[in-house]
Write a structure and sequence with these properties.
The protein is mainly beta. The chain has five domains: 2-19 and 46-97, no CATH class; 110-154, no CATH class; 166-212, no CATH class; 224-267, no CATH class; 272-417, Immunoglobulin-like (Sandwich). The protein is built from three helices and 32 strands. It has helices at 2-21, 25-40, 409-412; strands at 52-54, 59-66, 69-77, 84-87, 94-97, 110-113, 116-122, 128-135, 141-144, 151-154, 166-168, 172-178, 184-191, 197-201, 208-212, 224-227, 230-236, 242-249, 256-258, 265-267, 272-280, 286-294, 299-300, 304-309, 317-320, 325-326, 331-336, 349-351, 361-366, 369-374, 388-392, 413-417. It has a six-stranded mixed beta sheet. It has a four-stranded antiparallel beta sheet with strand order 25-24-29-30, with no helix packed on it. The longest helix is centred in the N-terminal third of the chain and has 20 residues, at 2-21.
């Protein structure tokens, strides 16, 4: 290779010398003057005479003086011998070569070499060669090729020792696993708190497991109580804890739950609940007053809901009453949550969906039973309650449970001006 380059270089010098020698002495003097001038004004494409390179056309070019400037001069056309211009992998000099000398086999494969991560990729000759991708020592890491793919890894500070080992930690089951860095550490396998459980070690298997933390909510199996209108019994649950279970819904047989005796039971009785005041005033001044005319013992208002029909036969809004314990003669007032401040103290409950405009139907449901209806379900053409306060006549002692019959407010209701709120809850 050294003889080839020398021959190329000598040939180029001779060619350039012959060009410079052409012409008369006077022409030479003129050319010398021009050459000196051109050199001073050159923008040299190359910097060092004698350097060689491969052009894009697979021609070996040499840096030489031409027209007074250092320029790349075509020297050897590798295509004439059906070769390619490539750089020798050892000397770095350009040469005409027919094939690559690959130093690795697969583009993209990796290896560790002297704590460096090297990648097999095409070099400037498009031959596969190893190149340094990352020096692991720069980040105080080690090059590890023990896994499926070589990589720079931190020296491990193992949190656990054996892959697959398990333990309880803060009510979670953790398992020892190898991370991407090749280090062993604990990872959460199951969070027991998701199911309101705790993590305990099984005494027989020594394995961690999620179990219920037994906290009894009742004291003795078989005890009973009323929860609203439902009979509940103290029973042993699947988590081995004592807790209340629903055993009978008294509303199914139109009864009420009574626990004033030795045990709770469903008894026949008249649970009488109905609406006694309707206020549709200015802006958001809207309210419904519910009267508990007859309640055996006490009653939980959360068993009741207000249903509002704006169109059709299906309620558009259902508003469950908040849980209050009431007795016979008590009231519960529900208002729109933007009701005037001076009216708000009369309200037991606020709701943004308590919205009606004089032709809507309002239904009171308690224990899945219709207790009262204002308006006629499905009829929204009759305007009967705009900017008005309606109070139930004192002669009315129960609600209208038929929501499909014609509604005439003059039969059971007395009319008062809009925003008449002073009687709410009275």
């Amino acid at each position: 290779m050294q003889k080839g380059l020398l021959s190329i270089f000598i040939s180029t010098i001779i060619s350039l010398s012959l060009l410079n020698c052409a012409g008369s002495n006077s022409s030479n003097n003129t050319n010398n003057t021009n050459n000196t001038t051109n050199t001073n004004n050159c923008s040299n494409p190359c910097s060092t005479s004698g350097n060689a390179r491969c052009s894009e056309d697979n021609i070996i070019q040499v840096c030489g003086l031409k027209d007074g400037c250092l320029q790349w001069v075509d020297n050897t056309d590798c295509t004439l011998s059906e070769d390619l211009c490539r750089y020798n992998s050892e000397t770095g000099d350009p040469e005409c070569a027919s094939t690559c000398s690959n130093n690795c086999e697969t583009n993209g494969e990796a290896r560790c070499s002297e704590n460096k991560l090297e990648i097999c990729e095409p070099d400037q000759n498009q031959c596969l060669n190893w190149s340094v991708s990352e020096n692991c020592s720069d980040a105080n890491q080690i090059c590890d090729d023990s896994g499926t793919e070589p990589q720079c890894l931190a020296e491990c500070n193992h949190g656990c020792n054996t892959s697959g080992e398990t333990r309880c930690n803060n009510d979670a089951i953790e398992i020892c696993q190898e991370d991407q860095q090749g280090c062993f550490d604990w990872e959460i396998q199951q969070d027991c708190t998701t199911n309101e459980q705790i993590c305990l070690i099984n005494q027989e298997t020594s394995d961690p497991e999620c179990v219920y933390d037994c906290s009894d909510n009742c004291s003795q199996t078989g005890d009973t109580k009323c929860q609203g209108n439902i009979v509940q019994t103290c029973e042993l649950q699947t988590n081995n804890c004592l807790d209340w279970s629903d055993t009978q819904n008294c509303s199914t047989n139109s009864q009420i739950c009574d626990d004033t005796g030795t045990e709770a039971q469903c008894e026949s009785g008249d649970l009488n609940i109905y609406i006694t005041e309707y206020m549709e005033g200015s802006s958001y001044n809207k309210a419904i007053e519910i009267f508990f005319a007859a309640v055996p013992g006490t009653y939980d208002t959360s068993n009741c809901s207000i249903l509002i029909y704006n169109s059709g036969t299906t309620p558009n809004y259902t508003i469950p009453l908040l849980a209050y314990t009431v007795s016979t003669g008590d009231f519960h007032v529900i208002c729109h949550d933007d009701i005037a401040l001076n009216m708000a103290p009369s309200c037991n409950q606020l709701s943004s969906t308590l919205s009606f405009n004089g032709n809507d139907t309002i239904e009171l449901v308690c224990d899945s039973t219709t207790r009262d209806v204002i308006g006629q379900i499905g009829n929204y053409t009759d305007i009967w309650g705009v900017d008005v306060t309606l109070r139930r006549k004192s002669t009315v002692i129960s609600g209208d449970t038929n929501g499909l019959d014609t509604f005439d407010p003059t039969i059971e209701w007395d009319e008062f001006p809009a925003d008449s709120f002073t009687d709410l809850g009275q």
